[in-house]
Design brief:
The chain has about 60 residues and is mainly alpha-helical. The chain has a domain of about 35 residues. About 85% of the residues lie in helices and about 0% in strands. The chain has two helices and no strands. The protein is elongated and about 70 Å long. The termini are far apart.
């Protein structure tokens, strides 16, 4: 594969990525928002449980 062919394939990949981003941008953004909210909720619950387990019951040690 020549250097020219690699540049052409890279340009096609970049143009395709931009077009997909423009076309599905709102859908991707909504999915990212929902995913980040879920991850944040899981982190808060995990962090709270870890904090209570680590510092909550000093009498049992």
């Amino acid at each position: 594969m020549t250097a020219k062919t690699k540049w052409i394939l890279a340009a096609i990949a970049i143009v395709s990525g931009v077009l997909l981003g423009v076309t599905f941008g709102k859908t991707i953004w909504n999915w990212l928002e929902n995913t980040m909210v879920d991850i944040l909720i899981y982190l808060i619950v995990f962090g709270g449980g870890w904090f209570l387990g680590r510092y909550g019951n000093k009498n049992s040690k």
